[in-house]
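BUG: 3D viewer hangs when loading the predicted structure for this chain

Environment: internal workstation, default settings.
Expected: structure renders.
Actual: progress bar stalls at 90%.

Input used:
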Amino acid sequence: MRRTSRAIYSILLVVLALIFLSPIYIMIVNSFKTRAELYNNALALPESFSLQYFEAAMKKMNFLTVLGNSAFVTVGTVVFVVILSSMTAWMLVRTDNKLSKFMFMAFISTMLIPFQTLMMPLMQVMDWIRTHLHIPMLNTHGGLIFMNIGFHASIAVFLYHGFIKSVPIALEEAATLDGCSKFGVFWRIVFPMLKTITITVAILDVISTWNDYLLPSLVLSDKGLRTIQLSTFYFFGEFTIVWNQAMAGLTLTIIPVVIFYAIAQKYIIKGIAEGAVK
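Structure tokens produced before the viewer hung:
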């Protein structure tokens, strides 16, 4: 009975894997085919593997530029979110009063507000800042990073807040008695102990920032400033008739994500495991 149930479970897993992997297979295989091969049989392997459609897609997408744009926005967002959110959460935990509790609840409450409800007010505020304060918040990577920090900080503060509660305050008190400043206590004592949750926060921010389309589409208008998701949207809309080039462009888009997951896989598993223990 146990062997039968295990066999059924294995078969179901294989079927689910095939369902999830089949679109990726179709995308990659058809990116190497000629149009005649693609329309003849979309599931068959190509007669020859040529990179000409990848080269055309890279050129028309301006791939290296948009890849650099996405990397800059993602790294900038992650660095500022980790630094600001960890310090904020630490101060909220160690400052035990009504104000800190209210601020923490305010951070949590923002997680419940859909982004779509804030789109128009956000753009109006950013335009007001640009017009009256002469700070370029729209159509700049800096403005996009600034807005990303605001939207990602709430979940990051929530995660750090729960983790910092498990950090013994005695270590901080000992460092203070030894003459360490408040800033030094955080960076020398507290932050190194937050490695596990920092990895988790960084991974979540990388995924959400890299895959984000909606906010960059609102903020960035110049073609040279587009992120990879934004560029893919315009490219795919332009070349949906030329399916082999469109598939090549989509394949190029997922390559950085696959590389990231391959590198970060062990850290993702470790972060989940240690976070569960905490």
